[in-house]
Write a structure and sequence with these properties.
Layout (H helix, E strand, L loop, with lengths): L2 E5 L9 H6 L5 E3 L7 E4 L8 E4 L11 E9 L2 E10 L12 E6 L5 E7 L5 E7 L2 E7 L10 E9 L4 E6 L2 E6 L8 E6 L11 E10 L19 E6 L4 E2 L6 H4 L10 E2 L8 E5 L15 E4 L8 E7 L6 E2 L3 E2 L5 E4 L14 H5 L2 E6 L2
Antiparallel strand pairs: 1-15, 2-5, 3-4, 5-14, 6-11, 6-15, 7-8, 7-14, 8-9, 9-10, 11-12, 12-13, 16-19, 17-18, 19-25, 20-24, 21-22, 21-23, 21-25
């Protein structure tokens, strides 16, 4: 594995109810419940889409919008996203966004980037267990009210790292403590216990240096959700309403009263076609099938999802037990199971997804 998680925030709905849905089994640990902490419409009026507006979680900026790495990292980890700052921070130190942070298991920062009043960026790293300035752009590199791509990369084993802005290596550092594994990452629009201007997040990805794919700096990537757009087969699954299944899954806001169900006779899987990628996409880093599912009693119930470029060769995810509460589960596919090479826009456009009850 190298890609650990990716999100465009388009599946949770918007407003206050999106908060609880984002915590339904995904890697999000805390998302803030004060001064937002919810999915919103894209702040760019010329774009139709979604973004996440981090809220506040108590008085600790390093827990405002925290994601747990599905796999703990003892080598190199990266977090990347497009960020929109509503304004540059006031001179109040508490309002300077700690906009990206990689953290150890107790939530303390290992390394973090902080936006300054003039649009410059300072990076702080933990040295002798104390956050210490390790890099400074000095000159402005961030402008407000625009989407820019940021990627924070740090090697826990060497204590060195880099910050990339719009794909450009902008800051580097060395000498950070190497004792703690990287277990969490965090976005915050503040640095203290006070309030600050709005900051939005989209195209969020976390990765590590293991495996053969996507194990180094990723650059300026787009995260795009592809909804089911047609039935290949419903197998032995039954729609709660109507005669088609794809439309019950292709929702921007969860509606758990409409669904597809399967009994305990080990049914044939259901399979669907997916929307095509935007025509400007030239390469694909991976596919992350995400499903929302529950079982209706305390008995056995396992689910497995998979993706295929041709309906024959499948990259199946984890065969996992599910709970009695609606929960999101996801897998990561980085290689086309037909060719053993990276997915391409052509193979993604022909891809099917299937969902199988295995127990």
């Amino acid at each position: 594995m190298a890609i650990q998680w990716a999100d465009d925030f388009s599946r949770y709905g918007t407003g206050s109810t999106s908060r609880s849905r984002m915590l339904d089994g995904l890697p999000y640990a805390t998302i803030g419940s004060t001064s937002a902490g919810e999915v919103t419409a894209d702040p760019d009026v010329n774009i139709t889409g979604f973004a996440f507006l981090p809220g506040y979680n108590g008085n600790n900026s390093f827990s405002d919008f925290r994601t747990a790495f599905p796999t703990v990292i003892s080598g190199t980890a990266g977090m990347l996203a497009r960020l929109w700052f509503g304004a540059l921070p006031e001179d109040d130190t508490a309002a300077r966004p700690n906009f990206m942070a990689l953290e150890r298991g107790n939530g303390d920062s290992i390394v973090y980037a902080q936006l300054q009043p003039n649009g410059s960026v300072i990076v702080y790293g933990r040295i002798s267990n104390t956050p210490t300035q390790v890099a400074d752009t000095i000159n402005p590199v961030v402008q407000p009210n625009s989407w820019n791509h940021y990627e924070l990369v740090h090697n826990k084993a060497t204590g060195a790292g880099n910050l990339y802005i719009n794909g450009v290596d902008t800051l580097s550092w060395t000498g950070v403590d190497t004792a703690d594994n990287i277990e969490l990452c965090n976005f915050s629009r503040r640095s203290g216990s006070g309030s600050a201007a709005a900051m939005y997040v989209k195209d969020f990805v976390i990765w590590d240096s293991t495996g053969s794919e996507n194990n180094s700096v990723m650059g300026t990537v787009l995260v795009k959700r592809l909804k089911p757009d047609g039935d290949v087969t419903l197998g032995d699954w039954v729609a709660s309403t109507g005669t088609t299944g794809f439309n019950l899954l292709a929702k921007d806001t969860p509606n758990d009263t409409t669904y597809l169900s399967a009994d305990d006779t080990s049914p044939n899987p259901m399979s669907f076609t997916l929307e095509n990628l935007p025509p400007e996409i030239t390469s694909v880093r991976g596919i992350l099938p995400v499903i929302r599912v529950r079982k209706v009693d305390g008995g056995d119930g396992n689910i497995q999802s998979g993706v295929s470029p041709n309906g024959t060769d499948w990259d199946d995810g984890t065969d996992r037990p599910v709970t009695t509460a609606f929960t999101y589960y996801f897998d990561v596919s980085e290689l086309d199971p037909d060719t053993g090479t990276s997915w391409t826009p052509v193979t993604v456009d022909s891809a099917n997804i299937r969902i199988d009850r295995t127990v």
